[in-house]
Amino acid sequence: MTLSRLIARPLLASYFLANGALDLREAPALAAQAAPVTETLAPALDNATPDSVSVPRDPVLWVRASGAAQVVAGLALATGHFPRLSAAVLGGTLVPSTAARYRFWEATDKEQRREQLVHFVKNTALAGGLLIAALDTAGKPGLAWRARHATHDARREAALVGARVRARVS
To answer: For residue range 59-75, what is the model confidence (pLDDT) as tens digits?
Structure first.
């Protein structure tokens, strides 16, 4: 792991560790903020899942689940375990969390609107960092590149084997 990744991942994860712990600790208080998002998200997820899967509608449970996911994925990202997956999970929790907490478009007070907008923009910057982390292959070729080259190599090998067989037959 390069020095930049060794430093950057824990720095990026630190926000989610603190935020996830806050969500776990203050879930009942934060549920009121989360309710508008969970009221939209829960039915959409319920429609997208099989009937045998029950999607909870309790905002407190959603806040706790998001907090737990942020702590676990934050620890994984900070320690370099499954960094791409953990960054993707953190990104998945960041979007609804931001939509619930920083609704600057609903603020009536000018100062409150400015503060909410600052936090909203900060979270979009965090989303950008998570996107970079989720797509970072640490210098190794990505899955698509490896698949293309494996196909190319397999075709070349098949052509060579075919040429050898034809040479022996003739």
So the answer is: 999 999 999 999 999 99
